Amino acid sequence: MGKGFAGARREPAVDDGTSEAVSVLLRGRSWGIEVALDGGDLGDSLAELESKLSAAEAFYRDCEATLRFGEMAPSASELTRLQGLLSGRNISIRRVLGGAAIAATAEALGAPFEESAVGSPAPSPRREPRRSRVVELSESARSLKADFDGARADIASRRRAGETSVRRLDLKRPGGDEAPSLRLVEAVPGTLYHVGTLRGGQSLQQIGNIVVVGDVNPGAELIASGDILVFGRLAGVAHAGAQGDSEARVRALELVPTQLRIATAIAAESSARRGKKAEPETACVRDGKIVVVPCSKEESW
To answer: Region entry Disordered: which residue ranges (predicted)?
Structure first.
């Protein structure tokens, strides 16, 4: 008998920066979240940040954050309050952005500092340039190169004499000069294969299927138009059949998502499932509701 999830739970809202009342912005990035504290009074911003984090504890827990300040450094009490908000949710500080006066704040937080203009978005992490490699040719390779150089000189002398070393092909189309008709072939959705753990704030999206070899932590997100398969613990948000395919399924070795979606059906984690013995399970839609069955009994559904 399939075990249903509890009622739907709404996802945390994300600020778009259009409201004048917003003094702190939380933006999702590929490496975590960006916290902008340069929009107004820092005391009000910290109060608003605490409200946003408290409204979605599981979503933001265990993620990495980049902090963006303005030109004025926070006071000692404000800095202590900020550290408490982040450490209480196990949010690590990736780096600190702001004016020159913020360098001391970054040092106090124990995070790298990058000077940035007020209001500018956090830059993407820099990639180290690829080192050039010096390759030495072996004796056999040197011999082949010498043969090639000699052949190239021979071809050049033949061309000067008006000779051709390669027979030219007749490239006329068999049906005349009329261009052939083209047939549109629909592309087959592919599968995104990811190896490694997804941490909070990270997201994978795919037109097709998603396969993850590793755990999906709370706050991480998987969105696929097809199936989702996790060889590990699925504890984040999963949305299969995102383009309306109600036949899509979600499978995991341990299925404990904070929120689960299949097509338009939505379910959240049920307290009755907590503490349940881990086993491979499949989530699918039956009679418009999401149910979970052991993979060993999946064929009967």
So the answer is: 114-133
